[in-house]
Amino acid sequence: MTRAFFATYKIKKMKALVYHGPAKKSWEEKSKPVVQQPTDAIVRITKTTICGTDLHILKGDVPEVTDGRILGHEGVGVIEEAGSAVTNFKKGDHVLISCITSCGKCDYCKRGMYSHCENGGWILGHLIDGTQAEYVRIPHADNSLYHVPVGSDEEALVMLSDILPTGFECGVLNGNVKPGDTVAIVGAGPIGLASLLTAQFYAPAEIIMIDPDDNRLSVSKKFGATQTINNQKSDAVAKLKELTGNKGADTVIEAVGIPETFELCQSLVAPGGTIANIGVHGKPATLHLESLWAHNITITTRLVDTVTTPMLLKTVQSKKLNSKQLITHHFKLSEIIQAYDTFGHAAREKALKVILTNE
Amino acid sequence: MTRAFFATYKIKKMKALVYHGPAKKSWEEKSKPVVQQPTDAIVRITKTTICGTDLHILKGDVPEVTDGRILGHEGVGVIEEAGSAVTNFKKGDHVLISCITSCGKCDYCKRGMYSHCENGGWILGHLIDGTQAEYVRIPHADNSLYHVPVGSDEEALVMLSDILPTGFECGVLNGNVKPGDTVAIVGAGPIGLASLLTAQFYAPAEIIMIDPDDNRLSVSKKFGATQTINNQKSDAVAKLKELTGNKGADTVIEAVGIPETFELCQSLVAPGGTIANIGVHGKPATLHLESLWAHNITITTRLVDTVTTPMLLKTVQSKKLNSKQLITHHFKLSEIIQAYDTFGHAAREKALKVILTNE
Amino acid sequence: MTRAFFATYKIKKMKALVYHGPAKKSWEEKSKPVVQQPTDAIVRITKTTICGTDLHILKGDVPEVTDGRILGHEGVGVIEEAGSAVTNFKKGDHVLISCITSCGKCDYCKRGMYSHCENGGWILGHLIDGTQAEYVRIPHADNSLYHVPVGSDEEALVMLSDILPTGFECGVLNGNVKPGDTVAIVGAGPIGLASLLTAQFYAPAEIIMIDPDDNRLSVSKKFGATQTINNQKSDAVAKLKELTGNKGADTVIEAVGIPETFELCQSLVAPGGTIANIGVHGKPATLHLESLWAHNITITTRLVDTVTTPMLLKTVQSKKLNSKQLITHHFKLSEIIQAYDTFGHAAREKALKVILTNE
Amino acid sequence: MTRAFFATYKIKKMKALVYHGPAKKSWEEKSKPVVQQPTDAIVRITKTTICGTDLHILKGDVPEVTDGRILGHEGVGVIEEAGSAVTNFKKGDHVLISCITSCGKCDYCKRGMYSHCENGGWILGHLIDGTQAEYVRIPHADNSLYHVPVGSDEEALVMLSDILPTGFECGVLNGNVKPGDTVAIVGAGPIGLASLLTAQFYAPAEIIMIDPDDNRLSVSKKFGATQTINNQKSDAVAKLKELTGNKGADTVIEAVGIPETFELCQSLVAPGGTIANIGVHGKPATLHLESLWAHNITITTRLVDTVTTPMLLKTVQSKKLNSKQLITHHFKLSEIIQAYDTFGHAAREKALKVILTNE
């Protein structure tokens, strides 16, 4: 074999964060992805991050993720190669990667429900290799990538891969937030904070943040919460009723994912109001229909569709949304094991989102 | 005392169906109601009916109803006297009585949520005397009565006091029924049938009725159901999945009010679909968030607002809605005890709604 | 040259209706289309029709249509060949052709505004060769064709290529037709009748058809109009005011396309109502803002998006919509010149839509 | 006659701004209003203002206003006397007066179209005596007044009588402003500025203000406009196209009321966009249907309903809306003639809204 062969061979390798079963991950060499379908694109990752869902996977809670899978479903990067049927993007374009892959031509995609795309949905770092790597293959690239506007802060845009559309679509849009409303958000983690930031698009009168962590409540205040309630230290229902003239909140956003918090939401919502669930739940919850049947309420669930990404890009560009506030820590991509440790101890580290840069 | 006095006295008495605690009711003499507020009207009942809620009251399930209360919240009649501030109605006008009393000037009324009216809501036959009587006092008459269009079939209109707005608002409107959709209705009692009739305003492709009573299912077919499932004799979930290409129904309407049927609804709804609860629930239900969190569904509850009564009147007048089909039995008002017996054994009697005429 | 060469050559020819400048058309031999892009499909036409727009083109009103263009933008057929990136369809599939070509991946398509697709829109029989031919090339086939459901009446489906989505989207949906409403439709040609048929999805109380042709008004009655007004023989405004208690119509649909009828619509609409324009206008109209500014009205315009085609297919399959009623005449595709003559004299021939069959 | 009689007589007089035909007005003595209906309230005015409409009346443009009419339809005050059927308010309550009188019980009021109330609408300072007086009679007080929240800045609330609901309902709500959108507002007078302020409830990316007055454009910048165009000095269409990548604005708000500006709006709106008319027009405008028919646009008109007043009150209280910015001048109520002079030369005086205080 010639030197040229080895040279070529070397180019085809890359480093990636690989899942090897519950609690096992490593930063290791993998084959660089290649175009498999004419609608694929290969993206060189420049910035990526870690999601709470990645921690769930590592706990073994998402059994569809198998040994050897590269994790990650967020990031920005540069088009390395575009398949022959890709028309929106070409080599060298800077792109935002959506956590949801959309084919654009199944019934669900046509209805804007990309989360349920028959040929996509949430597959990155789940059913196919993801973005915590030097390169990633993006299927249906024309519908699953977005142009990074010239002059953008690319770190800020990483927040648009998942967390901001999730907080906005599942929490704010589904929650039907309106000017003058009272909004309660249960859970001040990154997703709850993403709802807090994007709820302000609609000028609610009050946004009341509820969480047991005082640090997160203090961050919430900085991000625009008008009131905070530490529900470990005080009776959240009593406090919210007091703040709302005994009516409850027009919109209640569940951003935790356990039965207790979903049940709390039921006690917080005003007649005529909405409970918008964002939390990823592993267990059923009790629904108090014996009182709620007559309260004219709406409850919604949603896996993010990322159908609002073009709109969110405009709000970031026009500085209506400062998504960068969500970033607390920076690492090199090669330091991802350390970054997982930081993100995995979010309370201790006062971590929200970490940025991993592929230098 | 003079004869005149007694004459006057006699005029002031009437007959009414009076609740005397669980399982006790009687058709007895009561004082005829009088105008108490300038916004009140006194209506002479010409036609009334019995509601499933009246049976609940008689079981003792509605403790706010106290001994001595005249039952009933539905009916048509003639204005006997109008208070000084009533401007929409005058003595002699034929009127439809809404089961919901609306003041028209509290926050909830202004938002169209009459069910939560701060000065009304469901009070007739509940917190104040009701319509199963020769006369009834209607507070906030201008906003709680509707003119009977000239030439109307007044029996047909009795169905607009409660059952049709309930089936329509809580089931069809909240359920977001659209042309071409698949609708499943769990419960083929009068309310479920009211949803079936009014769902057809929106031309859904399929309306699948689910009930354990074959007679009701056969009535459903006559009323426009495209498919029926006897959920005692077959697996409703399997059958519905088969009928919908394994997708589920876009809208599922709960018209029973027990945990089992609400939980069934959760298995019937398609991703992106809606469960609209109409049932009056006495117990909590289990909400399967562990699967539904990612299904992009909406669940609604609602106490009927009767805000669509003017619209429903137009659909009856224009024969888009044949509300009379819901009437299976006729009685004189004075035979109301017998009517209760018939309605109380609805399955045996094949009863839907009974009409009581004050002759 | 060998016989084989000629055989091959022959296969590559087809017959088509070709535009040769104002008032000139011929049924002549053309090259059979071939796949040009991986997203193209070639469809063998089985049924097609003629649109009022084709007559406009032949008058020279649509200058973008150049000499040599094959006309036609409606039809059903069978996939002859699918490009390498087409995944929804394969050779032999029966398909409905949308008059609007949609790429599924530009901003407009993602927003459901296929009419403004940056890579499509109305191009068939306009900017590229159309469907009045034995074969047609359909770009972006996955998003521009629809599967014909097994067992469908394919003639009935030809009405879904253009006329029914146009009447429905531009007239009924934009017109916000609701149960109990009063709808006035100005123009009882095929498009007005398509609005009439699909308005009934929403159970309006009254649909008043306005046209100067008594035959079309009598067809309107058969199609579900509750009232008709011959606006040549009577004062349409006075008559409509009389029919609506002097209020006007909640929805007014303009289905003609001249200033006079658009101005008539302004006199027919009730306060709070909507004027939905469908007509293809060649001149400006006068907008009476001096009175309308305070009438809380909405005026809409729309080039059909065909975004409701999947829904309309369901309503045809479930027999909520009898689209076949619009078909009055049948011809062989090879008799298309005669068909144009019939369709071009619609009043004389009492023609609505003609079906051309490629036998 | 006794002294007591004269004392009583004196109390029954007040001062008011009275219209005496085109160009004639005076500050003169009038009878103090009295309760005429049980639903009336008498309000002692504390703060009022002058509207552009008052100037129109004084030009003779509103012929329904007759000699002797007290002008004015805005203000805050204190309940002096409440009719017997008024239940929401009592003597001494501080109230905001809506420019629209709503009975709460006609069809229009029930639909939220208070502007078309069959027993009210815009009547103050128009068909009945208005608010530029020491006292005013408010019919249907329960539905036409709003409680001033404790601790409010009452001057700021005067802006909620008319100008802010007008800018918000007719411009922003009807204009369907959404996060990330581009909004163009034609006319930077008080109403256009009210739209500018309230458009920001929905976080549009760009708000482009168009006016020929540089002072108003500079005020617009302070109020949140992202771009301004002086349409006397530059080509507004060319400039806007340049700012929007040649697309046009998603929402265009007409806040002038002449044919030229309405026609300008038609050149500014993007396909799929909305033109929301606020302007009070005296003449028809030309509607360019020959191009707009295919642009999928919406045009709306609206007389303000003030149905959003409760919501706007919440946004003022929660400091999402600084309505006080609109106030440029202060006068005593008795100086109203001078205030009219200032307001009538708005450009010269750099006047937006004036506040008149009844001391």
* Low-pLDDT segments, ≥5 res of chain A: none
- DSSP strand tally of chain A: 16
**Main beta sheet strand tally, sense and closure of chain A:** 7 strands, mixed
Head-to-tail CA distance between termini of chain A: 31 Å
Helices of chain A, by number, come to 14
Question: Whole-number average pLDDT of chain A?
Answer: 96
Which pair has the most extensive contact? A-B, 36 and 36 residues
Q: Which quaternary structure do these chains form? A: homotetramer
Order of helices and strands of chain A: HEEEHEEHEHEHHEHEHEHEHEEHEHEHHE
Determine the strand fraction of chain A and express it as a percent band: 15-25%
Principal-axis shape of chain A:
globular
**Helix/strand/pairing category of chain A:** alpha/beta
Query: Helicity level of chain A, as a percent range?
Result: 25-40%
Radius of gyration computed on alpha carbons of chain A: 21 Å
Task: Give a brief description.
Four copies of one chain form a homotetramer. Chain A is built from 14 helices and 16 strands.
Structure keywords:
homotetramer, 359 residues, alpha/beta, 7-stranded mixed β-sheet, 6-stranded parallel β-sheet, 16 strands
What would your notes on this structure say?
Four copies of one chain form a homotetramer. Chain A starts with a helix and ends with a strand. Chain A has 359 residues and is of the alpha/beta class. Chain A contains 14 helices and 16 strands. In chain A, strand 8, helix 7 and strand 9 form a beta-alpha-beta unit. In chain A, the strands form three sheets. In chain A, strands 3, 4, 5, 6, 7, 15 and 16 form a seven-stranded mixed sheet that branches. In chain A, strands 10-9-8-11-12-14 form a six-stranded parallel sheet, with helices on both faces. In chain A, strands 1-2 form a two-stranded antiparallel ribbon. The interface between A and B is large, with 36 and 36 residues.
